Amino acid sequence: MPPVTSADAPEPFSDFSDIDGFLRIPRLASVAAGPDGRVVAAIQEADEPGARLVSSLWELDPDGEHAARRLTFSEKGERGPRFASDGSLLFTSARPDPLGEDDEDSAAIWRLPRIGEARLVASTPGGLELLANADDGTLLAATGVLPGATLEDDADRRASRQDAEQTTIWHTGMPIRQWDHELGDSERHLVLVSPDGDLTDLTPDAGTLSLHAASADLSPDGSTVATSWTERVRGGETRSSLVLIDTATSERTTLLAAGDAAEYHDPRFSPDGTRLALIRSTLSGPTDTSYSRLEIHPLGGGDPTVVDTGDLTVSEFAWTPEGTLLVTGDLHSSGAMLSVDAATGAVRELVTGGVFSSLAPAPDGSLIALCSDIATPARPVRIAVDAAVRELPAPGAVGRLPGTVGWVEADVDGVVVGGWLCMPESASAGSPAPFMLWIHGGPHASYNAWSWRWCPWLAVERGYAVLMPDPAMSTGYGDTGLNRGWPRRPDVVYRECEALFDQELARPELDGSRTAMLGASFGGFMANWIAGHTDRFDAIVTHAGLWALEQQHRTTDAAASKMRVHRHEDEDPQWYRAFSPHRSIGAITTPMLITHGNRDYRVPISEALRLWWDLVSTWDGPPETMPHRFLQLTSENHWVQTPSNALAWNRTVLAFCDQHVLGADPIPDALPW
């Protein structure tokens, strides 16, 4: 990624021994390009006590010559910038209305003109999320209402429920949870917002399920909404079809009906409104994982164009004003951007060497986006028509790293398995570095970009080398890579990771007698399984890891897909015996650090509670000598998102590894941070 050469750019961060300072680096969340060439970014920063990340909007210089300029300053923050056709800036915020027209502490839609103050556009008691805007100024948004309520009576019903301190939820089927929040306590509706701020509920009959996780778009002329629409089917499962809604009549028609083989989501209208790009996802099973296909459907009739993206796993796509579809995703432990001809489906590679997101095509044919890699957090870039990439000055730049990063690979049973090796500057043959193996989550994911949650450079600063492999089931290696090791075979994944780990241990700069293994989510499951199958590591850290699969597959918010893939344990007892980590509790001798959030519904806290009980109750020795520890994060979900909690988590993880890998002092019984 090209460096910023502007003299007025902010000083880059480089002190990775300062974990608090690291967590206070501004983070680029999204970018938007305006019709007059303007570029605006949403940038998150930790508040003073570290209680939350607050987003504000910044104007960026599209020519990359001058420093960014902050536009908004409210305590509540602003997010989701999107330019209207008249050049004004739309955004979402829970900031108070200075005119006193809205006293609700919920997210509303605001408009900031080029000159002047931001004004409230529309608000609802359940909050508004801006989804799309039409050429005539009409907006598409999502809101929440209590079950059975309307936009007109929702406020009164909310007040009555709050006054009565009523918290009941009435369930009639699955699902009942998603990530960190309950389902069934509200209905998500799609609303049309006129240029004057008038609201029209397009989906008054949505209920609590149909739109709870819907992705939707508004046609450029404002006449049609395309959205996923979820319905229950037998066996506790759901299917998402693709429907069109006439904004004048609210009449809904099914464009693509989901079935037993596939479902549809993420619709995007072409600039002329004649085509719809979307994702068709197949349903996973015991022998095949889910595959996502990018398709372009002509709305006037005719066969769809199925886009062949090769090994690239699609993560995002956007239309240019000229009608070309830009596609980004994971590719070979990095990323790439493709250009797709909408009529033929012909694909051309535009840019490689980074993970691109938040695509914002500009009127002059260039593209504004965010770009990241293992050594660089997401930075705003401008990609010219000739594919030249230039970084735009913005807060949050990172300077000198405490080590180097390089690509390594090994042949494992005829398959090339690669990964990123981060080496500390201090490593040498005379002073070899302790070695960490990190296994990513997913399992459909890739170590290809910067992570604020699992940043290897904090460990490298302390002298550790970190190996981050992309083993079986990683994204960016086509269908074959996604399905290798399916269904979630820890033995296959570990064989590939261990082979690469052992190969790199031949380096004289690495110390095979001082090692640790760390992972989260699927990586946490791997950590739990590895702990019962080898004693080669000096410490194991497991975050949000699956422990007892018969239990987890029924209690996760994704129970339907888990049970479809892995079936009841009586149907495949051999798989559960071999791969449920709790079956090997008696073989665990490695000190383990468990970390888990109470609000994690993807891997419920019950997994950590049961693992902790099994470790403590089977420890054959005085209680004070037990090496295992449990860091419970009562307000966190599947991730550690609060800056102050992330500070405590990083310090605890590194201190635990220091104790058991380097022989440092034990962490006190009363956590000192």
Describe, in plain words, how this protein is organized in 3D:
This protein has 673 residues and is an alpha+beta fold. The protein has a domain at 403-662: Rossmann fold, CATH 3.40.50.1820. It is 16% helix and 35% strand. The chain has eleven helices and 38 strands. An eight-stranded mixed β-sheet has the order 31-32-34-33-35-36-37-38, sandwiched between helices. A hairpin with a 5-residue loop joins β17 and β18 (252-256). α7 (549-555) packs across α8 (559-566). It is globular and about 70 Å long. It starts with 18 loop residues before the first helix and ends in an 11-residue tail after the last helix.
Molecular shape? globular
- End-to-end separation in angstroms reads 36 Å
CATH class of the domain at 403-662: Alpha Beta
CATH topology of the domain at 403-662: Rossmann fold
Any idea what the CATH architecture of the domain at 403-662 is? 3-Layer(aba) Sandwich
CATH superfamily of the domain at 403-662: Alpha/Beta hydrolase fold, catalytic domain
Strand adjacency order, main sheet:
31-32-34-33-35-36-37-38
Helicity range: 10-25%
Q: Tell me, rounded to a whole number, the average pLDDT.
A: 96
**Unreliable stretches, pLDDT < 50, 5 or more residues?**
1-7
Please summarize the sheet with the most strands.
8 strands, mixed
The structural class is alpha+beta
Query: What is the gyration radius calculated from CA atoms?
Result: 25 Å
Percent of residues in beta strands? 35-45%
DSSP summary: helix tally = 11
Number of strand segments? 38
